[in-house]
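User: Fold this; tokens only.

Assistant: Input:
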Amino acid sequence: RSAAQRATNANSQHADIDLSSRRVRLARWILEGVRNGRSLGELLGVRFERAVKGTPAEAHLAALRTRFKPASGFGVLDGLQLQQEGPGTITEPEVLVAAEGMSEALDAVADALTAEAVYQIVKGNPENALATLERIAKGEEPPPLTVTQSPTPGVRLTHRVAVVLPA
């Protein structure tokens, strides 16, 4: 909250975290795909190609696949490389929207992982917060998001004690 207030005062949105249900589902989809052995570039490439399929910009897919060769044999372009370098001279609106969708997907993952680290710190588990960030930085399997899980239902019990003292 403190970082967000400073950023707002500086006319910046770099500290904003959006955990809307759509973005959390997107982040979970990407993290689950990485956990299942797919690369981030491959997952972003799948999202990009799905967004471009069936549009006039589909004609550019072959050139983009040649330029951004997939690291795996899956056959989709490397979306991470495309996101970092940009589509180049292609100015089709569908390609630009799909490229923006990849940036949004990466931002959703970053927001979810930031929220997870803060959640672990607040819960009193700074080791878990650090481990989460280290695992991602090393390219290891990402941990599940616990910040977005609903708490288990149960009965809440509150005791209140009042002590009456003479004036």
